[in-house]
Design brief:
- The chain is α/β, with parallel strands linked by helices.
- A nine-stranded mixed beta sheet has the order 4-3-2-1-5-6-7-13-9. The protein has a four-stranded antiparallel beta sheet with strand order 8-12-10-11, with no helix packed on it.
- The N and C termini lie far apart (35 Å).
Length: 206
């Protein structure tokens, strides 16, 4: 398995991502995500998109897609990363603008999950990842951030959360009730597991 593929998307947030982007990683830009790369002083391996947001063609390797297409520019980058053999993805610049684009990025995480890959969305104030059944996950304490857990499948059974202010043991969550919102990590790490279903974990700056 190759290392993580980082994708810089075109979210309009002015603040830099709350997680650092390693400059030696395999980095793709989705359209105007190139502006984020320029602000970070990073040269991506490739830029993909229709470039309607960027407003120009990149002066580096790029793949141009038609404006009228089925995939978002971020999805184009995800597909390319999968083709290159990557199975772990971090997508920066995923929030801060139109809510439909933010939700499309959440669906991109589901796409990655269905294709046997793992993804994380990173913004200036939020981090989102998925936790599948039978795959315990550890979340380090992050000062100034809450921890929320949501069922993204219709039901999640046997949900256990340890190391938090409001622990759960073998709990039942549904997509119809936001029971797991606004928890807090109280130890060095929080440990989360699910016996059946798919969870979405959100860390948000307070």
């Amino acid at each position: 398995m190759k290392d993580i593929c980082w994708i810089l998307a075109g979210g309009p947030e002015e603040a830099l991502p709350c997680e650092p982007v390693p400059k030696d990683a395999y980095i793709l830009c989705a359209d105007s995500g190139l502006r984020l790369a320029e602000r970070l002083g990073i040269e991506p391996a490739l830029v993909l998109g229709d470039f309607d947001s960027l407003g120009r063609l990149p002066q580096m390797p790029y793949i141009q897609a038609p404006v009228e297409k089925d995939d978002t520019d971020t999805m184009l980058a995800v597909r390319h990363g999968l083709e290159q053999g990557y199975r772990r993805f971090v997508i920066c610049g995923a929030f801060g603008g139109r809510w439909d684009h933010s939700y499309a990025n959440v669906q991109t995480l589901l796409f990655l999950h269905r294709h046997g890959a793992k993804g994380t969305l990173v913004g200036a104030s939020d981090i989102i990842t998925l936790v599948a059944e039978g795959e315990p996950a550890v979340f380090p304490y992050k000062e100034g951030f809450s921890l929320s857990v949501f069922a993204i499948s219709e039901i999640c059974e046997g949900v256990t959360i340890q190391g938090v202010k409001y622990p759960l043991e073998n709990a039942f969550l549904t997509i119809y009730h936001p029971l797991g919102v606004s928890n807090a990590i109280m130890a060095d790490t929080a440990v989360l597991s699910c016996k059946k279903g798919l969870l979405m974990v959100v860390q948000s700056r307070l």
